[in-house]
Backbone:
């Protein structure tokens, strides 16, 4: 955020896979990997998050997420 204006190009999103063992059970995007891991552990207590790539923009993260759903 610059001067009260949201910077649409800020790289504040993470792409991730949530895995149980070696199996990917969910993929998504988030601004907070730790919080998101705790939320997923309610459903999959023995799982963990694996960050995919680098931090990215919201637009690029949503494009990646949409592509994952088609696969």
Residues:
């Amino acid at each position: 955020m610059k001067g009260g204006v949201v910077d649409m190009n800020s790289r504040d999103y993470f792409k991730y896979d949530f895995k149980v063992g070696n199996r990917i059970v969910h993929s998504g995007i988030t601004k907070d990997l730790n919080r998101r891991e705790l939320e997923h552990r309610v459903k999959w207590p023995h799982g963990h998050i694996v960050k995919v790539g680098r931090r990215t923009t919201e637009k690029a993260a949503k494009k990646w997420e949409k592509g994952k759903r088609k696969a």
About this structure: The chain has a mean pLDDT of 91.
